[in-house]
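Before the break, one more example. Copy the sequence into your notebook; we will annotate it together after we see the structure.
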Amino acid sequence: MKDLTILNQASALARHAGRQHAIVAENIANADTPGFKARTLPAFDPKLAEDAQNGSLTAARRLMEPTELRTGAAAPNGNTVSLDEQMALSVDAQGQHRAAMAVYRKTLELLRLSVTSR
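Here is what the structure looks like once it is written out:
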């Protein structure tokens, strides 16, 4: 079984955050569409990311497959998009992406230091 390095995990987290952000954008774009059901991704799971990297299609689907977001009551037209909730999900996805990019930056700094011996 191949180990999930910190860079591979950061990459998986960045992809997950990007996918979540795209789903949030789709939800917001359909906020007035009658009958539209808001969707989201399950929380990022490093174990699922490792399994997906090792070739498990089931793990990859579970990590990146959106599901219906079940919160609150639907609007009279059947739409379940809450703009407040979508903004919170967007901020969370942005934070995950920033964390992944920070790992990349710090890793590059360490590599530069090891090469330049400063």
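The chain is about 65% helix and 5% strand. The CA atoms of residues 49 and 99 lie 16 Å apart. Try to locate both features in your own notes.
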